Automatic annotation (TrEMBL):
Biased composition (Polar residues): 237-260
Residue numbers spanned by region Disordered: 226-269
Coiled coil, from the record: none
InterPro entries: Silence_cplx_Nase-comp_TudorSN, SNase_OB-fold_sf, Staphylococal_nuclease_OB-fold, Tudor, Tudor_AtTudor1-like
Role according to the record: Cytoprotective ribonuclease (RNase) required for resistance to abiotic stresses, acting as a positive regulator of mRNA decapping during stress.
Residue ranges of domain TNase-like in the record: 9-151, 186-369, 383-557, 587-714
GO-annotated molecular function: hydrolase activity; mRNA binding; nuclease activity
GO biological process: cellular response to heat; mRNA catabolic process; mRNA processing; positive regulation of gibberellin biosynthetic process; regulatory ncRNA-mediated gene silencing; response to salt stress
Protein name: Ribonuclease
Keywords assigned by UniProt, alphabetized: Acetylation, Cytoplasm, Endoplasmic reticulum, Hydrolase, Nuclease, Phosphoprotein, Repeat
One annotated Gene Ontology cellular component of this protein: nuclear envelope
Compartment list: Cytoplasm, Perinuclear region; Cytoplasmic granule; Endoplasmic reticulum
Domain called Tudor: residue spans: 778-843
Amino acid sequence: MATAGAASGWLKGKVKAVPSGDSLVIMGNTKAEIPPEKTITLSSLVAPRLARKNSDDEPFAWESREFLRKLCIGQEVIFKVDYEVPSINREFGSVFIGDKNVACLAVDAGWAKVREVREQSQQKAEVSPFIAELLRLEEQAKQQGVGRWSKVPGASEAAIRNLPPSAVGDPSNLDAMSLLAANKGRPMEAIVEQVRDGSSLRVFLLPDFQFVQVFVAGIQAPSMGRRAVHDPIPEPETTTLADENGNTSTKSRGPLTSAQRLAASSASASSNEVTPELYAREGKHFTEIRVLHRDVRIVLEGVDKFSNLIGSVYYPDGDVAKDLAIELVEQGLAKYVEWSASMLDDDVKRKLKNAELEAKKSRLRMWTSYVPPVSNSKAIHDQNFSGKVIEVVSGDCIVVADDSLPFGSPLAERRVNLSSIRCPRLGNPRKDEKSPPYAREAKDLLRTRLIGRQVHVSMEYSRKVNVAEGPGAPTGATDRVMDFGSVFLPRDGEVAPQVPPSAGSQQTGINIAELIISRGFGEVIKHRDLEVRSNYYDSLLAAESRAKAGKKGMYSGKDAPVMHVNDFITASAKKAKDFLPFLQRNRRMTAVVEYVFSGHRFKLYIPKETCSIAFSISGVRCPGRDEPYSSEAIALMRRKIMQRDVEIEVETVDRTGTFLGTLWESKSNVALILLEAGLAKLQTSFGTDRIPDIHLLVQAEQSAKRQKLKIWENYVEGEEVSNGPTSERKKEELKVVVTEVLGGGKFYVQPADQKVVSIQQQLASLTLQEAPLIGAFNPKKGDLVLAQFSADNSWNRAMIVNAPRGVVESPKDKFEVFYVDYGNQEVVSFSQLRPLDSSVSSSPGLAQLCSLAYVKVPSLEEDYGQEAAFSLSEHTLSGPKEFKAVVVERDASGGKVKGQGTGTILMVTLVDEEANESINSRMLKEGLARLEKRRRWEPVDRKQVIDELEKDQEEARTKRLSMWEYGDIMSDDEDSAPVKKATGKR
């Protein structure tokens, strides 16, 4: 057998398709994404013809094609065009695999015969250069009776395939639904006969030779377009090939034969063809070089409404079976489509989605111009920490005390939202909101598994949450940022590593988010493309699939258990008192600490009675809010008992509806823990005979005193030290000027010092620009701006209290502003606003809200309220007069400043030093205020002040002035009773 050398005209290529037993489609060896290709018919050979429309195979046609297909498909070959026949526009040539002549191999196996050689043809050289060898091998095959020369009786008839109608041009007879029902989920052997586009194939299903079209499940490749209704024979097209030395040659190709049309019909270009979509040719070529005329396995997944078969296609690559859908998506040559992906397993769907995300990130091919949607999420990198879980807020949110931060530090408690999951949120009893199904179950699962346990946290992303402004929205609500991460709980007996597992590494311990999802107590968030998500997102999706398959939790189809809880915290004190006997008869009961109000006061849930109560430890008192060591006491209790199972014994109930008694956690008296830490004091007025373990409590307090711990740091033997608001403290006196009167005894003051002058000078030095352009300046609620005061047209620092929804549309748009240096508030137009320069925005507002101490002034809506406000204005605003303000107490219950009348209030005695008289006294003398008799005004150091004020009030009462016109105005019982503080989260 002659070998192919380096003679001129020989080309290299790879066999892409084998349309018949005597023809090959060879593509060139170039770096182009779609290399040129050429169809070569083996010189001087004739192979049996395969069946066409309404015709049968010639004998041995299938075996002939299969011999050549298995021999050549995907192989590197060298070839040479021996001659052309212009009349039929075909090229005939010699093809070698290594040193073996393909034509000789086919003839030797008996699957092709040598074309009859005419003398005329010989003169035109329209014969193979190896004609003599071919004739010798043919004669040898005939003598041996191999292949088509078989001498077995009936062999020719048996070598004709019995084809179903679908294989001979009548696909309407194919019952797609029956075929699917018989083979769904079962791998079927097949040979791909044609590739219409990257995700659409025509195949023979073996062994029955059903000829079907299969759409690859889960994906869609760009369309190759469609031919016109009247489709003429394609015009000849130009093909470029490269030889071994890189030189190119141009050949023209005429109309395709039937075999060639089957192999490359959708690749032919003509003026009657709709233009293919971008990257359609690349997708088609990618699929062709992997599956065309190759053995594949097809798993039928479903049928669409047009009876088209949908399936997964797997092709061999060495010893590995590859999924064509995933390969196409990874290369950016197809997109994920949900309608057919829904037929696939969840694991395959996840792989396809992830492959598409990676292609989008890399902007591969069809995603070159992809622009990811705007996301409000931001990745968090390298923020891993370990700590103890001290609170479970809901099924997808916990609070972890960071071990690396000091105990009691506000930053030590880190709120972690579990990444990429969403659980039902508990309702708010105060707003009559009921908890949705499985909200309590989700929270209880985490509480029983996590509270007090050491966990590792890997922070993954943060997200800005928009809090809607409208009916039901919190007052002054703004956007807030939430942090999300994965939390891992070490398994029993397992020592957790110092660093949490990273993305892609093997998980160590139990992924809490996966635990919740697997129980059916939550769902996985469907993130948008390229949105930051959990590093373990695939595991979460797998857990969700298991929960759905197992019909767990919210997927069970059953109604969630309903639990009615009696809330005695929001109920009246009388109702709590009526319930006391039911709690006393049980003696010790199990309870769950739901919230820590202070070091000694808690919200408890009692499962046996299905009720929530306010509970205070009897005999001890921790520092109150804003007192020294209050936060440390709360932090200690949150770590010790928050959401733990505890035991309680209720002894009585006070006038506010708070139950008093003893509380144990793990058989330890919690009062003893507080006293030993120096965070509480004994209150023996309760009655020592009613306090369990009183001798131990006394010893604990004495020990803390000796060590001068916390509240006892200034303790001196024999002296009583107090840390409450009633303790003796150094008087705080301020020089102030009153700037605004609100009514009800409330007013704003400015410090009478250089701060005011400095701010005024800074504002005067600013060069104010013209009114800002619409759209360039969009002040929002809470922003600091410059506003023009309507009374004198001066420019002052102000905070936006209310603003129009959306962007500014007109210079006349109205904004409500609060002047932070004066305390007054008004509505101005957009044209009266300017951006605030950073040089004057850093200094805090000078206006301080104050209220007259010891007295109660009627509000503007009450009788004599208007008169009282007018009188207070006359006394304080009649001139630029300075006053001395003696601070009696600071009330921080108003929270952060959000507008007029909010924020910390200074309870003051306002003294007019020129008249040597307090404004508090004047208001009482005029009968426009009355003395407030709450217990907070009763300490010994203030008794003299109160006695003097009582004389002033008695004087007005005797003279029947103003509010005393008709005698005693009302009872003071509501003042003397303790004030019931609002419950809720700190």
